[in-house]
Amino acid sequence: MADPKPSESSPQIDELFDELAQLCCQCLQGDQSHMADRSEVFLKSLIQNGYARKDGSIQAEIEARAKDSCRESAMHRGGELSGLTKNLQDRFDRLAKWNSDNPQSNNQAKATNISSATDA
Do residues 93 and 44 lie in contact, with contact meaning Cβ atoms separated by under 8 Å? Predict the structure, then answer.
């Protein structure tokens, strides 16, 4: 497991990265049945825990943890692992962008009553 940086990580974030790495390991061993659904939950949790505001790549973090967790599979299927983690990074980026985009409001604030809207 990669050493967490105390100023950049929390136990919740570490756990989410570990779970994502385990999903990658399962995929490398042929079990891709849970990847889409479970990874989506973990990626959203990373965003909710504020990881989207941090600099750094989730791809590199997940890949390093997966290599530590399932060395044999990761060593023989490094290209596939890179593809899996790249996909996770792309999905994370899309989710983070979607969560940060606020609809543009063309409506200006309106007066709540007549006396505040006029000089009367």
Answer: no
Residue 6 to residues 9, 14, 89, 96, 104, Cα–Cα distance (Å): 6, 11, 22, 23, 37
Return per-residue pLDDT of the chain as tens, 120 residues: 444 443 457 899 999 999 999 999 999 888 877 788 889 999 999 998 888 777 778 999 999 999 999 888 777 788 898 999 999 999 999 998 887 765 444 555 655 666 666 665
The residue type of 103 is P
DSSP assignment string, 45-99 = HHHHTTGGGS-S-HHHHHHHHHHHH-HHHHHHTHHHHHHHHHHHHHHHHHHHHHH
Q: Residue 97: CA atoms inside 13 Å, Cβ hemisphere, count?
A: 6
Q: Are the C-beta atoms of 43 and 104 separated by less than 8 Å?
A: no
The answer, as to whether pTM is greater than 0.85, is no
3-state helix, strand and coil shares in percent for the chain, rounded to the nearest 5 = 65, 0, 35
